[in-house]
Write a structure and sequence with these properties.
106 residues, mainly alpha
Length: 106
């Protein structure tokens, strides 16, 4: 698993997954699953922020943009660790659909 630091706002982060994914690489499958888990976690965090009452004193467009980017980075980091388990389930489902379960590092 690649543990190199990455920024959630890197525009090439998802594009860099195309070539390994076309090669049908197991590492690429795990990375794509982690990216999907990251997107789900980011949506969850965004929904939680939207549901809060907020702080009118410090609420501005700049703080909203910053907290949005911070939440995306948190989501990326959470998905690179053991995460919440969605990436592992995706990998398992895809491998079963491809005709066999391969041993994957968790």
């Amino acid at each position: 698993m690649d543990v190199a630091p990455a920024l959630a706002i890197d525009p090439q982060r998802l594009g860099n997954l195309r070539m390994p994914a076309k090669a049908d690489d197991e590492k690429a499958l795990r990375k794509v699953a982690q990216e999907f888990e990251s997107l789900l976690i980011a949506q969850l965090m965004k929904s939680m922020r939207d549901a809060s009452f907020g702080d009118e004193l410090f609420e501005s467009n700049a703080t909203k943009a910053f907290t949005g980017m911070l939440d995306q980075q948190y989501a990326l980091e959470l998905s690179r660790r053991p995460g919440i388990g969605i990436a592992d389930l995706i990998v398992k489902q895809v491998q079963q659909a491809q005709g066999g379960v391969k041993k994957t590092p968790v």
